[in-house]
Amino acid sequence: MFRAKISGLLAGVVLSTGLAWVPQVVAHGYGDHPRAQQFISEMGKEGFDEDNIRTILRSAERQESILKAISRPAEKRLNWGEYRNIFLKDKRIDQGVEFWGKYKAALERAEKTYGIPAEIIVAIIGVETRYGRNMGSYRVIDALSTLGFDYPPRGKFFKGQLKEYFYLLRDEKADPFSLKGSYAGAMGFGQFIPSSFRSFAVDFDGDGKKDIWNNPVDAIGSVANYFNAHGWKAGEPVRSNVVIRELADETWINANLKPEVTLEEWTRRGINTRQGLDKEDKATLLRMESKGEFQHWFGLHNFYVITRYNHSRLYAMAVYELSQAVAKKRNGVAG
What we know:
- The protein has 15 helices and ten strands.
- By secondary structure, the chain is of the alpha+beta class.
- Among the domains are: about 120 residues, Helicase, Ruva Protein, domain 3, CATH 1.10.8; about 100 residues, Lysozyme (Orthogonal Bundle), CATH 1.10.530.10.
- The strands form four sheets. The chain has a four-stranded antiparallel beta sheet with strand order 5-10-9-7. It has a two-stranded antiparallel sheet with strand order 1-2. Strands 3-4 form a two-stranded antiparallel ribbon.
């Protein structure tokens, strides 16, 4: 992962903590930012050199475009039809078929090792980065500093990710200024935030590196490991159809991502499914809008697991439908 990215270290310094950095200081960085001072102190208590952390943060740049982007996420401003149209285009489906064919062996091994269907892994990577074609252009240090120190609504979360990033840099002996990702600091083929990288990234090809940036095989194994760790149930469905005899309470719709009501209870409420599922299975009732019309679905346990990757019902539905479209197209091509 860092073979190309560490080349800049030859002109840099290896810190006493194991962090590597390039001594480039720019004006208006975050080293002296008021909200950064407690963070720097906390990192010192965890064994990092405070002066080194401060020097690195002085080179982190505030990005106004990041602050604008996070205030208008697609999951909050688009309805299902608009959101679906982004990800369910023929070109992305074809790219998914191509990716599956190229990494068939790794996907089969990931499915066998972790119990995650190949089509789900393919769809995640397709939704996240169009199979590595768009992994983000922001320096991760800039993204996490901007959001950690200048976005109070989620500052605590992103300062936590910045801390995880410094640990990642130390563990992987990486240059803090070379790694790039999304406006939220997500990285690689599968767009792992730093805490996800540290918890779930794997060296799936056995070359001694966990490379989710340049190695699709490691990315495949890492995505599969993430889903396995979040409780994916192999062989179980993601969603089921809904038959509504009556709808007594609108608050039942899109109330939770986590299923909390059994199918037996939904039946008592006048809402059923034609699929032969266990009545003790739990489901959440989803309503999806497209072109002024509504579809209803039950989101099951595995639907909820997909939302652990991105906490959005639109995202989970897009991943599922892309997975089915890619699998159908691939089977047709193979047939």
